[in-house]
Amino acid sequence: MICIALAVLHVHACAQFSDPRTYQNTPVGINQLELAYAYVRSNTSIDTSIVIPGAKFNLNQGYIDYSHYFAFLRRTSWVEASVPVANLNGSVAGTIIKGSTTGAGDSTYAAAILIKGGPAMSPAQFAKAETTTSVGLSFSVTAPTGQYDPDKLLNLGSDRWSFKPELGVSKPFGPEQRWVFDAYVNGYVYTDNTSYRGAQVLHQRGLVGLEGHISYTFNDKIWTSLDTRASFLGDTTISGVYQNDVQQNFIVGSELVVSPNSRNTLIVEFATAAIHKNGPSLTGFAVKYDYSWGKGYR
Questions:
Q1: Do 60 and 85 touch, CB atoms closer than 8 A?
Q2: How far apart are CA 251 and CA 120, in angstroms?
Q3: CB 186 within 8 A of CB 169
């Protein structure tokens, strides 16, 4: 049971997904380090909320992510920090723009708590507990720490802050509770980029997202999921000129999680945009390795 829980401690995935089983309960006192590589073919840079018409980009991204789980108000809680490094190359149709850039992307920080079905437990207590329906809240902040040049179209940073509140419900069901259904509602809220393409001001309305995940546990070492995300709004103005670019997106994906033991986990993800009206026309995959440790951990 601990292996399965620790396979989902992070809050990262391709294409703006929150991971399935993010809000299932987890033993406290655990630390996790995640190393990941992702490849995405898209018409956006790292910031997938801003589409560049006619662009065909290849994004190779690696990141390091650290999470720590603890008790707060007797509830399971966690904090997380992530820093990406990436290479972006490609071109824009109808222009002479073609190039490549490599460097750091914007860093992300998150805090979360289970408000139902998540009493704080040690690894020993957790191993004897039954899995129940849980409800969680999280709040993520992405800081403009990435590489950004206002005179260049290809950038790895966004030169603005973004904030993502999320409410998630996780419900196990079926024989031996091998099936889990997750439903999330979230939103990205952005500050203005005041140096967009030189000296222009980019303002973007919030991007609202709804997610559904269905996953199945084969045994105590392997589970897989089918993931969906619909998002809308997110339209922009540039220096006061409305761009008429309200987004309507639907992304589907899948994830395979293999945990040979309680310390080590390998994750493979795939995602593609089935519908992308003014949104990212992306297709990509990610491979992640998680290492977990903590008090009472073997």
A1: no
A2: 34
A3: no
63, two tokens: 């990141």
CATH 2.40.128.130 fits 2-294, yes or no: yes
User: CB within 8 A of 22, min separation 6: which ones?
Assistant: 8, 11, 112, 136, 138, 168, 170, 182, 184
Question: What are 197's two structure tokens?
Answer: 């393409």
Q: Residue 275 class from Cβ within 10 Å (0-12 exposed, 13-18 middle, 19+ buried)? A: middle
**Which of 138, 233, 248, 144 has the alpha carbon at shortest distance from 192?**
144
- Mention every residue, 6+ apart, whose C-beta is less than 8 A from residue 202: 50, 160, 192, 193, 196, 236, 237, 238
Side-chain half-sphere of 71: how many Cα atoms within 13 Å?
10
Distance, in Å, from the CA atom of 87 to the CA atom of 103, rounded to the nearest integer, reads 7
Closest of 236, 234, 233, 235 to residue 202, by C-alpha? 236
Asked if residue 62 lies in contact with residue 84, where contact means CB atoms within 8 angstroms, the answer is yes
The runs of H, that is alpha helices, within the chain are 2-6, 123-128
Strands 98-104 and 134-143: unpaired
The answer to whether 119 touches 125, Cβ cutoff 8 Å, is no
Q: pTM for this structure? A: 0.89
Tell me the per-residue pLDDT of 209-262, one tens digit each, with 9 for 90 and over: 999 999 999 998 999 999 999 999 999 999 999 999 999 999 999 999 999 998
Give me the residues paired with residue 212 across strands. Answer: 183, 228
